[in-house]
Amino acid sequence: MLTILIDGIAYGMLLFVMAAGLAVTLGLMNFVNLAHGAFAMIGGYVTALAMNRLGMPFLLTLPFAFLVPALVGVVAERLLYARLYRRSHLDQVLFSIALVFMAMAGTDWLLGSGQQLITLPGWLQGRFEVFGVGIGRYRAFLIVICAALVVGLQLILGRTRFGARLRAAVDDQRAARGLGINVGGIFAATFAVGSGLAGLGGALGIEMMGLDPTFPLKIMVYVLIVVTIGGTASLTGPFIAALLIGTADVAGKYYLPELGAFLIYLVMILLLILRPQGLIARAR
Amino acid sequence: MSDTTLSHPATAARPDAGQRASRDLLRRGRLKPAEIVFWLATAASFFLLPDRHLLLSEIVILGLFALSLDLIIGYAGVVSLGHGAFFGLGAYVAGLVSVHLTGEPLTGLILAALAAGILGLATGPLLLLRASDLTRLMVTLGVAMLLLEAANRAAWLTGGADGLQGVTINPLLGRFEFDLFGTTAYAYCLIVTFALFLLARRVVTSPYGLSLLAIRDNALRARSMGIPVGPRILGIYAFSALIAGVAGALLTQTTMFVSLDVLAFHRSADVLLVLVLGGVGYLYGGLIGAIAFKLLQDWFSAITPQYWMFWMGLVLMVIVLIGRDNLNALPRTLMRRLRREDRA
């Protein structure tokens, strides 16, 4: 029981790390980006390839799993996304679906369609017992890392000058511009960090979710669910939503396997009926 | 009479405006020469390309499906990522009817249309939840995914991942057998599509259709003008679902097979792509897009068999980056430029 709870929390934390960037960019520019999962996939492949082909240790690959997608993200944002901020949502959906298609087919083309497997270092394998509850070492590792990231993000958002500017831009873009805040620059930076976090999430998630060229599509649904349910007003909403969805998914697969993926879609639709603006809606 | 006209110009203008409105509506409703040419060409394809009937049926079905999506995106401004749900439901209902009830094609078609329409009516209210586009996207996607899971789990009914076996369709109207070359199938698809097209055209050129355009352009203002936004969107959504259901049923009946593939996410994504290739908001976009899509798919598969999706994505991305409006206006801009050069 507790083991499942902890699995669910680890999974939820992972989802949050992947979705955090999307939540901020969606709130900031109102851009519906279905291609966020593609950045997560880049991160995953960076780790998988670095470990399997270059023989790098797992921990050492993680910074690269952050940096490479962040770099790709900043280039994509300046070259492509920035042109579409003022367009209709239909255009944005189409554009990001196109990006997903290209990322999937391109990955398949370059690296093959097989699952990428990695071997975790010995000290992350197996499980340990606390008060009779078995906890996977890797799950505990995930929770610690992701919790650190969550706290770090909250501190950056809440305590730094950059965070204050970002929150101002999310709350009222026009007024923020009027105050001399460089919204475009903030957005590029946020997009980069968001993509980097997604990539880190993808790398950390290989063990739990697998990694193949269809990854962007698979993860897209989860990440979007987290953001829609959580709302884009703050990071607290998506965080709660991610934990909820993670736990519901893991518990559902364990207790009600015949329901399969039913549960999370039902949970999503129900939550959207109850709170269409997300769990924590923007103050009006 | 003339006295009142002078003293109350506003009241006198009203019947005038009314007449003008009905004249405008009539003009919108009339078939234009280009449209007649389009349908004549379509009919001609039946006789001129006798060995391509299977492919052509596929194109027409895809076109009809995209047309149904155009009704909600182009006319009501509802973006959907889960329109495949209705297509898939129609396909499965048509399949199940033929297995358990009757092989008569028209019965299957009507039942499939009804089932899809009812699902549209049932899930439509979800679109009205103080809806932002994102909420709508997720709700439509969620419904489609739920349906896919349901079809996957209910293997006793749908055959699960193996597909539904034993779909047999009786001759159309008791006379025209569905043959291997798809000749009956193509004629059947064409006639059904044409009939539904006329119906859809009638709907969008009616005052009801105009009120939809008003909602699409500004829901808030439409509401303050007294247009009941919710019921109108619900109506067109159900109608669109019904047509998508028919498209699904046509696929089942002409291929005599249904599998989970009809409900997969890529259906919903592909149909969006088809619609955008052809252009949104003038009903022909779906049909023209379907032709373009199949041709492009053929061409790309010839270059790189497994990775045609990459090129398709690239085309879509270029279309969006150039801007769909600019692209539609391209012929006109070119003409204008040519003319100017003539003058210079």
Average the pLDDT over all residues of chain A and give the rounded result: 82
Label the overall shape of chain A. globular
Low-confidence stretches of chain B: 1-12
Multimeric state? heterodimer
Q: Ends of chain B: how far apart?
A: 55 Å
Q: Tally the structural domains of chain A.
A: 1
Please list the strands of the largest sheet of chain A in the order they lie side by side. 1-2
Give the total of domains of chain B: 2
Share of residues in strands of chain B: under 5%
CATH class bucket of the largest domain in chain B: Mainly Alpha
What distance separates the N and C termini of chain A? 40 Å
Number of helices of chain B: 17
Q: Structural class of the helices, strands and pairings of chain B?
A: mainly alpha
The main β sheet of chain B shows up as:
none
Mean pLDDT of chain B: 81
- Please tell me what the overall shape of chain B is: globular
Protein name (chain A): Branched-chain amino acid ABC transporter permease
Transmembrane segments (chain A): 6-24, 31-51, 57-81, 93-118, 138-158, 179-199, 219-245, 254-274
Membrane topology (chain A): Multi-pass membrane protein
GO molecular function (chain A): transmembrane transporter activity
What is shown here, in short?
Chain A: Belongs to the binding-protein-dependent transport system permease family. LivHM subfamily. The complex is a heterodimer of chains A (284) and B (344). Chain A is an all-alpha fold and 284 residues long.
Keywords:
heterodimer, A: mainly alpha, 2 strands, B: 344 residues, mainly alpha, ABC transporter involved in vitamin B12 uptake, BtuC, 17 helices, globular, disordered N terminus, transmembrane transporter activity (chain A), transport (chain A), transmembrane helix (chain A), BCAA_transport_permease (chain A)
